[in-house]
Structures are given as structure tokens and as C-alpha cells.
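Predict the 3D structure for this chain.
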Amino acid sequence: MNTTTNTTTTSTDLQSLSISQRIIAGSLALMLGLTLLVGTGFAGDYRLHSGAHDTRHAMGFPCH
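Done. Predicted structure below.
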């Protein structure tokens, strides 16, 4: 007989994170986002840079 247990994340699970854990998670997300933004902004390959540039325009962000 197989028994499976389903686990779901609820709002009470997210509230159990301490402030330091939230700060670490936020810092990691910020560093990842900045790495992606700067990495595509200064990419040597024109296709990667142009793709990011066109995406910014499509989403309505001014860039120049």
C-alpha cells in the first residue's frame, strides 16, 4: 500500500520566516535581479542586448 502526503504552502508557513531569513531571501533575489539586468544591459552579444532592450520597450519602461 502506498501512502502519499500532499504538502502545500500556506500563508501561515510564510509568516513563520524570521526577519533575518526574509532579509537574506530578499537580498538574494535583489542580487539575482541586478545580475540579470546588468548582464543583459552590458552584454557583448548584440542579440542579447537588443532582446532585453526591446523587452523593456514592450513593457513600457523608458530606457533612453
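Residues 19-41 form the longest helix (23 residues).
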